[in-house]
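Comment thread on ticket #2218

A.B. wrote:
> Attaching the input chain for the structure job we discussed in standup.
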Amino acid sequence: MPTWYNSIIILGGIYAGLLTPSESAAVAGIWAILIGMFIYRELTLVGIVKALHETARITAVIFAIIAMATFLSVVLTYSQAPQRIITYFTEMGGTPLTFWFSVAVICLILGTFVEIVPVFYLTVPIFAALALSLNQNILHLYVVFVAFAGIGMITPPVCVGIYTAAGVAKESPERAFREVPLFVGVGIVFGLLMIFFPSAATWLPEVLN
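C.D. wrote:
> Ran it. Output below, let me know if you need it in another format.
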């Protein structure tokens, strides 16, 4: 089965205006089940039930964290914590370059221990407020955030990305760990390039937009 069928169904549905990203994810899930059961004949009913159970467990944990993060965002709003952080940052003489390095380090550390969705809810409201106060591009912020949080996801000790990639590739995590230094090193280099050259981070989304 050619793999480009997946791109046509998922990306084609989005760019044709037929599906939202959420609907596209649902279609992709159904498509994966159909391929696994009727084409590759490796997916069984027991496997589907097991996958649904695991998905429900992981989703419950993530949404519990998101619920607390949402509550925290409300507390931050009423306490005006972002405004206070902005004032403190500017009074300390914070520059845009200092801001970007702070975003990179914080996302790298949090991404190492926490799933990327809770990290997004916990940090982006404050990062966005700081970026706007420094007249920085919000799109640039999102790209840098995802880049360094993604690097954190393949960095020990949690390594969610490594375990996921090893499972998809049907390789042992121990073998995947051997490649971590190379990917982390390359990722950090490209992440720094996006910090120093904002156009490298924003040109593709701007073209697609």
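A.B. wrote:
> Thanks. Noting for the ticket: The chain is about 80% helix and 0% strand.
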